[in-house]
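Following up on my earlier message about flavin-adenine dinucleotide. Here are the inputs again, as you asked, copied directly from the submission form:
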Amino acid sequence: MIPANFAYHRPSTIEEAVGLLASLGEEARALAGGFSLIPMMKLRLAAPEALVDLSRIAALKGVREEGPEIVVGAMTTQHQLMSDPIIAAKVPLIPETSAVIADPQIRYRGTLGGNVANGDPGNDMPAVMMTLDATYVLAGPNGTRSVKARGFYEGAYFTAAEPGEILTEIRIPTPAPGAGYAYEKLKRKVGDYATAAAAVQLTMKASTVETIAIGLTNVSETPLLAQDAMTILAGSRLEPEVVDRAVAAAEAITNPASDGRGPAEYRTAMAGIMLRRALARAASRAQG
Amino acid sequence: MNDMTPTREEREAKLQGMGCKRKRVEDVRFTQGRGQYVDDLKLPGMLFGDFVRSTYAHARIKKIDASAALALPGVKAVLTAADLKPLNLHYMPTLAGDVQAVLADEKVLFQGQEVAFVIAEDRYVAADAAELVEVEYEELPPLVDPFQAMAEDAPLLREDIKDKTEGAHGPRKHYNHIFDWQIGDKTGTDAAFQGADVTIKEMLSYHRTHPSPLETCQCVASMDKIRGELTLWGTFQAPHVIRTVASMLAGIPEHKVHVIAPDIGGGFGNKVGAYPGYICSVVASIVLGVPVKWVEDRMENLSTTSFARDYHMTTELAATKDGKITAMRVHVLADHGAFDACADPSKWPAGFMNICTGSYDIPVAHLAVDGVYTNKAPGGVAYRCSFRVTEAVYAIERAIEILAQKLGMDSAELRMKNFIKAEQFPYQSALGWEYDSGDYHTAMRKALDTVGYDALRAEQTAKRDAFRRGETREIMGIGISFFTEIVGAGPTRNCDILGIGMFDSAEIRIHPTGGVIARMGTKSQGQGHETTYAQIIATELGIPADDIMIEEGNTDTAPYGLGTYGSRSTPVAGAATAVAARKIKAKAQMIAAHMLEVHHDDVEFDIDGFRVKGLPEKRKSMKEIVWAAYNQPPPNMEPGLEAVSYYDPPNMTYPFGAYLCVMDIDVDTGVYKVRRFYALDDCGTRINPMIIEGQVHGGLTEAFAVAMGQEIRYDEQGNVMGASFMDFFLPTAVETPVWETDHTVTPSPHHPIGAKGVGESPHVGGVPCFSNAVNDAFAFLGSTHIQMPHDHWRIWKAARALGA
Ligand SMILES: Cc1cc2nc3c(=O)[nH]c(=O)nc-3n(C[C@H](O)[C@H](O)[C@H](O)COP(=O)(O)OP(=O)(O)OC[C@H]3O[C@@H](n4cnc5c(N)ncnc54)[C@H](O)[C@@H]3O)c2cc1C
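Thanks, got it. Here's what our run produced:
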């Protein structure tokens, strides 16, 4: 429970941070809230030689609207997401998710950027960002580039981010007014990662699903976008047999680990139940 | 009398004696972060020890290379079994008559076993160095399933005792067998089963779990080589016993060993025994001549020091067709892990498992327990219970439900029909105990009436119908448990630890102006002894509790005692406290009589002083009497006012209670909600109702945790799964149900103040209550027993299997 030795740096600009990571090399890691990285270091599952603490970089914090997008700085904490008026009004799926992440102490420090950059299938925000079709902006030694959340996750702890790159902001297309949303998460207790969880974002017109996106958390090596289920449900009136088919399609893409939360078959079944419940709640919230 | 004269009630209230909801005096420092725990101790030159632990469950050690670790700056030494062998300290005796490796000798027998002890300048260097010690292993086949332990081709675990055919408790049947303990009338029991109208039989597994106190096990050893004295600070529930053991092992005379248990952050049985960390710290301090600290981390605590339970109990009941129980038969397969390190009184290899006839008048019974070795951590401690009582109560309280189901009878009614009746006390049980007192019918009736039992059953019937009609996916369970505990070990005639009888002690010293210091042989780990012992003295002697300081845990100043576990503090040291106070009171009476110039038979005790019988205004307050004891004692009387008592209890005490739980279960997810939990406890005389309530809340929360998911799991390779609070279920305030508490009072007839002990009752009674609720919910679908722990996925699986 004691980490190996490491050096500590605390830059105040993005450029400085990128420069530090480049000069320190592959064994250096960015530090955000520290609530995933530091436990890993204490267990010696990670032993970075240097940490570059992003907490003093003002440019990485805050929420703003930019044209058709909501832009969230990577260092914005879960607590800030739960109390931000723009987020509450425009993307309520986010605070609904933040509220079921960890506990208040962790939410005061844990950041959106850390949550999505971490690459742990247990994190809740990645599936939500895929559902919202967010884009991640990465700054590296060769400048900045954008990667879609839907294409970011490659395996457990493997993402499209290159070593030395910093996630600076998350850009979310502003959902249409009146959209329905829900995040349903089953967990064993407060502070636990999901046994299974489902995110749903949809728009309805005349009781018919117009657009829909579905994300699943912690039922595979990576967060999942339930593409087939989305196709089945789009244009439907959420008739029971259509929902059954969509749930079966979503369950089919899961491949959960068996662990203390339960055997794989249970976790797959729970992904289905969470999806059913999220669909029902999202539909009940949608206007139109 | 004028208006300023306090009334009797006011005088009584001022004492804050027995029955008063006195606030816990220790909380002043605990709530301000001013407790003094072992890890707060910092001594000049102190070093820090850390273990290299086995990565395998079963392997031969080919080679240990510590050269890289020793080369790291700040590392002082690395101890292995080879260093301990010449001192004959590579094995240590366990409380159960076995030996346990201090550092692995040639073989490792469980994952996490201590292999080497690294001593360094600070804990950071020690952790780095531990990683640098290279251990070469040759893997051996692991034995994880206790049911395979005595198979013909089972791997041999304990090479050190493979030729020993006699264990500490009789013959061994197999090289992985520890003991076969039998009690009761086998022939009579078998005969009763043969002729029975109805019988039930079920294998009830009580899974492996862990007491998991918030503060882990830790110590600081400091050898003063000039004086030849060893001081050992540690998280010890039984500091005096630890001193005796330390003296014996280190060969230092007992008076030159100073054991000090400072504030302790919870014990629950985890801190009774001796661990390799203590021995290694002592050896390291002796070798290096400076203090050495050892502190377990959370994962070490959960995976190495003292698991609890792991009992697999094949339980049978026989009954007449109208529900009178005629016999009980139980066979237990006990998984003790790699060494038998159970913390039971020496003559009781399965603790008090023979309390398994419970609260019922069962004429004949037989119990057999087979202990076996497996490649798991040693332990088998009494996690918030008196020596295997939790297991015993689980067996009988599940069996009663299963029998009721088979008889088609309401289980509350079945209990009422078979309870020991109030007039049968003292009651001799078929398995050898003498229950001191009880009124089970009254307690059960009060519980059923308070919760509105009949209405709950009616609601359940309606819900079941709605479920069958497909209108809901929620089912409802009503769990009942009625437990009888056996606590306060114990009479020295049948209870000892390492040959030392299980008495306990109190020494009370009253100073001239009325301030009192009292010391006991027990050791609080959060129970509130500093508050409650003072209340006993306050009532007995008429001195305000606030003027009484209680001190425990320093073996140099406190009288010898056996420590705090098995709910023994109030039954044994609490009794000693009352007896010592009464010795002082007798002397005070003589002094008062002398001061009042009457014969001592003519004065009587009156709340906070003595008065002349029939002349209440002629009185002396305790304050005056105490002063006189030092000033002008009667002729021929020694001055001073103090007493000591070593109390050997004539019997155990038998607290009991009736618990009821209402639970709603979502069969689609296995998620449950405890809608209501009612706990009626009878612990005899109630010293501090607020502390009792706190103990009940804490015990129920732990019972809830254990029943609903708290588990130490192993995979097939013997790897410990989930030994951190991420997986090990420790409920937060969010998960914890709301507790309703209630009580009846049936004093113990043999205890000086009639008190019985309560700290463990809620755990003992709570676990079967939750499990019965889950099982009751599924009973209508044809299920007889679902094994614990009842976490979401297991409930879901059970629902699936039943076609729900
Ligand atoms: C008890 C407990 C319970 C938890 N429960 C949940 C839960 O239910 N759901 C959940 O989603 N999470 C949970 N977490 C994790 C928590 O939400 C973390 O805060 C989050 O996963 C990581 O965010 P962070 O800001 O703490 O990042 P850090 O831990 O500091 O970093 C995480 C990783 O991301 C990298 N990183 C961080 N920021 C950047 C950046 N801007 N650019 C590039 N790389 C970066 C780091 O190098 C590191 O590899 C839990 C944590 C704990 C301790």
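One observation from looking it over: Residues A 29-37, 39, 54, 74, 101-102, 106, 110-111, 113-115, 117-118, 123-125, 166-167, 191, 193 surround flavin-adenine dinucleotide (CB under 6 Å). Hope that helps, and feel free to reply on this thread.
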